[in-house]
Write a structure and sequence with these properties.
five-stranded antiparallel beta sheet; eight-stranded mixed beta sheet; Immunoglobulin-like; Jelly Rolls; about 700 residues; alpha+beta; about 45% helix
Length: about 700
Amino acid sequence: MATDTISGRKAWAVSGGRWLLLASALFAICMVGLAIAGGVLAWSPVPFWDMWDGYLDFFLFQQAGDSSIWWFQQNEHRIVLAKVLFWLDLKWFGGTSVFLIICNYLLVACAALLFCRILRQLAGTARATAGEWAAMLFLTAWLFLWSQQENLTWGFQSQFFLAQLLPLCALYWLSRAQYGALAGRHCMMATVFGLGSMVAMANGILALPLMLVYAIVVRLGRFKIVFLAFFTVLGLSVFFYHYNMIGGRAPIHKVLLEHPLGMLSYSLRYLGGPFFYLARGASWASQLALVAGLLLVTCALYRLWRELSSPRRGPALALLFFIAYIVMTAVLTASGRMSLGPEQAFSSRYTTPAVMAWAALAVLYFPLLRERAKAWRGVSVLALGVLGAAMLLLQVQALKPANETALFGKRVAALALAMGVQDKAQIMQVYPEPSRALALAARAVQKDLSIFGHYPLQGVAARMGQSLPQSGVRCDGGVSAVVPVVGDPAYVRIEGALHAPGSAQAPTFVRLVVAGHVVGYAATGAPTPGAPATQTGFAGYAKAVALGGDMVLQGEHPACFLPVHVSAPLFSAQPIAPSPQLASLGSASVLAGNQWLGADFHRSKIDGMRVYGSSIHGDQDTGTISLRLKRGDRFFYRSGPTAGHQVMTVEGYPQLSVVMPVLPEWTQLVLDSAALPSGELVLRISDNGDGWGEWSALALKSE
């Protein structure tokens, strides 16, 4: 009977282990698959933010023969290894960021393999059990957590993964340098990884000093300690040679002395960042992250105390030093970012170091957790189930449709840069300094680099004025807005929609043709809610002198054409500080029934002028203001960062209607269109938007 009972328990354990392994495998496949799907959905070939400097500008200088650009700082970092990947992407892979994003995922996979290797070593079994396989699969799933979406989906962020992976490799190989015939080789390998960490990101300079302390603690041997000390001093000396400190940041010791609690709060939230995302916006998410960060530090300190009293110190102590590296990274980040508020610690990019630290802690405690799980099987299954469910709920967010508005905005910004159109508001969606972006883009256009060397942007500026006959079937659609480009009177912005009848897809690009010649281009892909998949919104630019008559919208892939009549914009726009001398309209021109009884978002006070705004209680307010005026009159206008529902119309002339552009700063509007009738007119501006950032305001002379 006893034998039968024991046999039954063994059979049940084997069966349970198989089910656990199957569930873990399915979970890991779902987590990794969802992360990959999210990367595909969020992909854009348009360089974004730091990529214009650290990616495009770097490559242009390198191609011009400037080898010093490899060592040139990116803010406080020396990202030499990332620049190698940037060079490969631009030189051999077309500069579309696909290669870079694949590298991001491969680096995460490398981290997963290394953690699994360490787990197996700490487990101490000859063959991996079902529980160990399940733990390794769960660990892999954790490392692909979608809280890191900014790093996973942005081609510029490979250094964030390198700056954690390389120190982990360095410390692990250093732990292998204690014993065996290959100990010397492992020490050299660890040193290479340590030096590599320095040229991954600035926090990588911590790796070699920590390795030196580790070598002293474990009594690695005099020669190896001297060897590490030499390369630590050499590496730090080279790193800080001609180093430019970033201005505006207080020294870390000063911040620590003046704001110790703020530093502690920020650092703990940084370390607990993944749990902020797992809480999915709950009111207590920030507190959960703080407690999680405190738990990580406490558990690591307890294990460090136990490990230092152990006679044989293997990879466990290396993992503890790696956690110390992440904690020090959090403190360094807090010293420079704490002034932005504690919530800034939850930036998506900062969760990669925290995810790695939690993975290290889990591997450290795996042998203990395995034993406890046998005694507390039900509690263990429940805890893993809750954590796994939270992870899966977060990971599913990767399948949400990508922010089509943001992706489309990047395409239009890239078109403006390719054409040389100074649409500053649009260009700022991809880079904060439009003039610099235009200069960089002009150099990239000459070299056919990145997006400027691929269809549809390759050579667009050079093909302006070329003849282009109509082709394809007749499209459906039309032009919905023609507005001036603020700061570039040579161009106007044209928006609308196209539908290709009989085709399974919408046109991918639009050429704007007047009298058989190309006068502009438009990017497609603007969200059109409720419209069929074969319809696409578009926005682009055309030469202002070519407007005021018939135009052909020539769609491509599939080819279709649509003749339209396009009037010149009703007004020209010039960003300039408002003053009564620059406005011809006063408050007396406002007609009865005015609904703009509020102000702009900033509650502007302008001497000699009165502000009329649609925002009374908030962005949800809507309303209309009507003005009596004539052609040539001038007034000032500004709007929130969201547009599309703000419309200007001329009473009695329904064809004279335009959707107002986004104008976040006060801008002088001059009603100078030749299409405007002579004599007195009634101009109506309606703000019909009730969403975030939808408000409008006028500034008129006080009377």
